[in-house]
């Protein structure tokens, strides 16, 4: 082979790291199915973190001819091949379809190695294949999931945001992986304000939306129904929204979640902040499952993942659909480019809002109507701040 490994200075495409996830699940199946398309190499240099032995094992199950090159680290890569960083050398026992301490240990090891090289600048973005929380706990992984671990490693002490993304929908979750009984105690005016700030910055910088409009869902049924069904929406969430508006942000709500999605009103917004996990993920997966991805906003680097788990029930059966992983890969490329452009030349990074509106089914001539709606909501919130707010108006 005449091809030589090269450094970043000789590359004209991004290096995208991929942690292989749980070796007993479908992670490597969807990775191999995606990367076996030779056109992928035209868009990025894939760098897998795991083991060439594990990759070969799953490649034989899938039955696809994926050519890859083993490398020590991603500082120098083979630009026209899939690269594999061997994070361990020993043979590993694979038990398809089950969480084990072994699968947790090596998923953790691959993730740590990938994050280390992401922080070092060896790769431009990271796509994480699914892990299993039970297996990770067996391996003494002290976090509920990827998001919390990556926040510690890459948020630089700032607020991160779990963000579900599709072509037409972006839903953030204020409280991440938290038992429902603990949500009310976690939600505060400060938390909502911080999450909205992270969301707004992400939409501007990573998604190129110069004036994003964000809806906030209510925590209680009917957004509290004037305090009858809980006072958190009026006491905590609405004041946080008002504070963000005073700082120039276009935030609206809180909206009752059922009517907000049922009426299709969600299509008018660039982003939606849900208060708790299932409030955001249930509508997202109903509307975008298979085409959506998970993005950890607010980090110092780009990280995406597919919107599904390890799918143990079909592991090893060659039945997994790679669409969501493929979307996660291309989203990582797009977001990494957007961020580089924003900080390199902000004027060129901004994307016309008409593109975003067209994705959401809002025609160009509706711009004035949408601005009128913004003004109406701003006036409503100003009235609430000065005189109180009648929930029935929503």
Automatic annotation (TrEMBL):
EC numbers on record: 1.1.1.262
SUPFAM superfamilies: Isocitrate/Isopropylmalate dehydrogenase-like (SSF53659)
InterPro entries linked to this entry: PdxA_fam
Listed Pfam families: PdxA
Superkingdom, taxonomy of origin: Bacteria
Residue ranges with Acidic residues bias: 361-394
Residue segments, region Disordered: 355-394
GO-annotated molecular function: 4-hydroxythreonine-4-phosphate dehydrogenase activity; metal ion binding; NAD binding
Record keywords: Metal-binding, NAD, Oxidoreductase
Name of the protein described by the UniProt record: 4-hydroxythreonine-4-phosphate dehydrogenase
Organism: Haliscomenobacter hydrossis (strain ATCC 27775 / DSM 1100 / LMG 10767 / O)
